[in-house]
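Slide 14.
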Amino acid sequence: MYMFLAAVAAIFVAILLVLIRLFAGPTLYDRVLAVNSFGTLTVLLLSLLGFVTGRPDFLDIAMLYALINFVSTIAILKFFRYRALGRASIRQEEA
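Slide 15: predicted structure.
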């Protein structure tokens, strides 16, 4: 039980540090990385909670959240690079 509490405390400290980076990050990419790290730490926390409570369905939720986190990070980075999510920019199609 003490190992679980220590692990949860460490994850919460890491989440706090990531949130500081999110609000203080000087560039956009620092903020995107902080959001991605926050999602990864949330997946870790959900997995740990599911393991300790003996509920394997939490692992399914954590995996789904990890997939959503990955896809949303790629979509955000694509949007900030091309300013569109659908097709590539016209400049790329002409080249």
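Speaker note: Helices lie at 2-24, 28-53, 57-82, 90-94.
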